[in-house]
Amino acid sequence: MPRVNRREIVADGEIQVFHVVNRCVRRTHLCGKDRQSKKDYSHRREWIRQRLEFLAGIFAVDILGFAVMSNHLHVVVRTRPDVVTPWSDDDVARRWWNLFPKRKNKDKSPAEPTEEE
Questions:
Q1: Is the domain of 72 the same as that of 100?
Q2: Do residues 46 and 40 lie in contact, with contact meaning Cβ atoms separated by under 8 Å?
Q3: Which string of DSSP letters, residue by residue, matches 46-87?
Q4: Closest to 42 measured CA to CA, from 30, 50, 54, 52
């Protein structure tokens, strides 16, 4: 059965809750101990938690819950159009810059954008 297109599900201006799943492919291991390679990827759980926290702030969503499994990730998110409504174009551009900076500082944080950028 084909998946419903997301634009037919997400309603503009309404707070909604979604269950999102992301899976690894080709027996790639996301977290925990890989029985085949004997490598331990447990340290990735904290990376994923930090990244979810960062992305939630950028995209104005609430993370209601998440589970990091050995080869996939579940996240329950709530959209927050009430938070986004007062954002100016400059606010949106700054958030985009923080996510995809063209330049970075020595500590890998986004460099302050120039007026042109």
A1: no
A2: no
A3: HHHHHHHHHHHHHHTEEEEEEEE-SSEEEEEEEE-HHHHTT-
A4: 30
25 and 43, same domain (yes or no): yes
The full DSSP string for 85-116 is TT--HHHHHHHHHHHS-SSB-TTSSBPPPPS-
Nearest 5°: the CA angle 43, 48, 38 is 35
Q: Convert the pLDDT of each residue in 73-89 to its tens digit.
A: 999 999 999 999 999 99
| Same domain membership, residue 78 and residue 35 | yes
What does DSSP assign to residue 40?
Answer: B
Helix (H) or strand (E) holding 44: helix 44-59
Q: Could you tell me if 103 and 55 lie in one domain?
A: no
> Which of 64, 62, 68 is closest to 21 using CA atoms?
68
> Could you tell me the pTM of the whole model?
0.78
Does residue 1 lie within any of the structural domains? no
- Is residue 13 located within the same domain as residue 69? yes
What is the span of the domain harbouring residue 113? 87-117
